[in-house]
Amino acid sequence: MELPTPQDLRQRRTELDLTQSTLAEMASVSQPLIARIEGGDVDPRLSTLRRIVNALEEAEGSVVRADDLMNEDVTSVAPDDSVHFARDVMLDEGFSQLPVIRDGRPVGIISNSDIRHAQENDDVGTLPVADVMRESVTTVERSATLEEIDAALDHHSAVLVVESGETTGIVTEADVAAHL
User: Fold this and answer.
1) Residues of the chain falling short of pLDDT 70
2) pTM for the full model?
3) Are 75 and 89 contacting, i.e. CB atoms less than 8 angstroms apart?
4) Strand 105-111 and strand 138-141: pairing?
5) Counting Cβ atoms within 10 Å, is residue 112 exposed (0-12), middle (13-18) or buried (19+)?
6) Strands 105-111 and 97-102
7) Mapped to the 3 state alphabet, what secondary structure does the chain carry?
8) 154 vs 148: CA distance, rounded Å
């Protein structure tokens, strides 16, 4: 990652017609700090620089967030539903996985591969989803950036979007690919 110079920051800010005060407010820093950074008088902490760059990117409209990518209509199953029911929902909807949600909160995910691996049990269809699901589910806030979502999708096939712990959407690799 190449860090922007004070001149780069000043140039981006002026190209966007932002005052130092406006940028400072957007980045949750003080205007004098923006002036000192742009003047080369101070080297900001990386976290401060990241907030300033994020504010500039947002002003440019280049930041894609979970809110922009997510599907709000989340098809899910409950932990007490049968595996047979979950498989039928996946077949009917054309999904390879479903989030498992209890009282609006994500508790796991079940996929076709989870069901296949559990088929050593003859009556897997009668088992509750909770017995077959993976409890590892990745969640992000609506404000999560595409970069954060992409990193999570490197390890998981779906990311659930939550607000105050409640599931509000889902983002899959297909959603990211469709956006690009």
Assistant:
1) 1, 121-122
2) 0.67
3) yes
4) unpaired
5) middle
6) antiparallel
7) CCCCCHHHHHHHHHHCCCCHHHHHHHHCCCHHHHHHHHCCCCCCCHHHHHHHHHHHHHHHCCCCEHHHHCECCCCCECCCCEHHHHHHHHHHHCCCEEEEEECCEEEEEEEHHHHHHHCCCCCHHHCEHHHCCECCCEEEECCCEHHHHHHHHCCCCEEEEEECCEEEEEEEHHHHHHHC
8) 10
Which pLDDT value is given to residue 122?
A: 67
**Residue 164 token pair:** 């105050």
**What is the reported pLDDT for 121?**
67
Amino acid at 74: V
Tell me if 101 sits within 8 A of 80, measured CB to CB. no
Half-sphere exposure of 103 (CA within 13 A, CB side): 2
Q: How far apart are the first and last CA of the chain?
A: 21
pLDDT in the model for residue 1:
52
Is residue 170 within 8 A of residue 158, CB to CB? The reply is yes
162's tokens: 């939550």
Place of tokens 């297909």: 174
Residue type for position 104: G
d(CA 33, CA 139): 34
How many other CB atoms are there within 10 angstroms of residue 93's CB atom? 10
